[in-house]
Sequence to fold (568 residues):
Amino acid sequence: MTGSRRPSALLAMAAVAVAFAAADTYVVVLALPDMMATQQIPVTELQRAAPIVSGFLLGYVAMLPLIGRLADLRGRLPVLVLCLGIFAVGSFVTAFSADFGSMVAGRFIQGVGGGGLVPATLALVADLYPPSRRAVPLGVVSAVQEIGSVLGPLLGAVVLAVWFWQAIFLLNVVVAVALLVALRVLAGSEVPADGARARAGLGSLDWLGLAALGLAGASYIVLVLRPSSLQRDLFWGRLFIPYAGDSDWTTPLGLAVVGALVALLLRCTFARRPLVDVRAWVGALRQADVLGALLIATVLGGIVLAFATADPAVQLFAPEGHWYLLGAAVALVALAVHLGRSPRPLVDPRSLRERPAWGALVVSFLVGAALIAALVDIPIFARTTRYPESQLMAALVLVRFLAALPVGAWAGGLATRRFGAAWVAATGLVAAACGFALMTRWDDSSLDSVVTPTAALVLAGVGFGLALAPVTTSLLAHTPADAHGVSAALAVVARMIGMLVGLSALTAVGLHRFHIAVEAGRSPAAAALVQEQTVFAGAAVCCAAAAVVALLVLRGGADQTRASSHLS
Fold:
């Protein structure tokens, strides 16, 4: 790493990108009714809109290992730039979706780009900072990701209060483009002008490529919006008349979109300095074990669809969940065989052979299962007991937890350097377990005071924050530098899968206790209180189990982390 690099600025830009991508996981919570109305889906048929949410999660999780591997092969900054571009395209397609299928496709593309930002950023931290200084920035990135997940609904509420739902995704495009420019400016001074930029995958300012992209985007917007003034005009109205059939893609505007995209693809493939070097990325894909990536995507996709498409209020799995899990199990067996035979597997099992490496993944899964209880059930508790008429005020109860989380992440990073990952992670997780234990004693008047809920929320937030940095630090310290991208991706996958499984499992147990309370003669309000207390108790158990695992497996092994040169 050269002295002229600006690690803090690069980290800040990447962290903002991670926050926006994480926010998009739940940003549609409030916008979903308006998005359904655009596609003429009745609010009473909410299950038909589930792909809008699950499509993003599927893209976010299933493609992470492949993108993490590409970050190892092509470099961190090129992958960050690529994923920001993918995220912007997905946001654009979602905002100007012509039908329900294109809306779901846009959300999937958003998930692919947004999910890829996380492992690339974590691996970037490992490149920018030596092992002794890595824990703090890793904790900050992890904290920003979780904060973004909760701020998503709040951001959606603010935008919807003053504008239409499409503005949420147009804001993503603006932010993504601004971050792309900032990253290129920060990295540009470090890349020689002798063609190394193209070889590094950052591309160059290709005006013809930008013109083709702009033509495709502008034509698509007009095609989707179909302004009535243009359609009624004798000349401009011809742009909307199909040459064959009834498809919009056979209209002059549709053909302009397709033609511009084909021209862009050809230029990116054959030009000397294209906007995106397609040949270089295709070469990286060949090295990245595409078959292994497809098998991993199938495994993760089956798990996501089994849990994310279920209604936690009535079921643990989706109606087809058992088939999804069976498909995931078959793919998992095939993946194990493939990884054992492939000379260059996507995930080399040897890179995770050390106990702290695979132990960090187990801890990440348990942390995700507990963390989802805070992100989802604390606002539900507030809505049930204190703010029945205001979803926004109920969500703001979580602010105390969110404010404490980055503080804990910063403190955890500092403490890890002195006391080691195992003890700091275990201490934080015990503190989080204590915070949830205090929440199990909340009643319908607890939120009327300030001290009682604040103590539990701050304790849990600081505890989770303390655990984030040492877990990721331990993982990267015990995996080879040339596998940091895919290792970081696996950590994110473990946490996301933990959140999905935890949400379904803890909700199912809570509902079981709810029905028992109702059958015992309690009122629905009192039974709902029992349900939330049960979820908090389950989260406390997950935190305690994670603390034990951290204490047992995150110790030992030599620090293998070395600063790498993936930025060039």
User: Anything to note?
Assistant: The CA atoms of residues 354 and 557 lie 7 Å apart. Residues 1-5, 189-203, 557-568 have pLDDT under 50 and may be disordered. The chain has 22 helices and no strands.
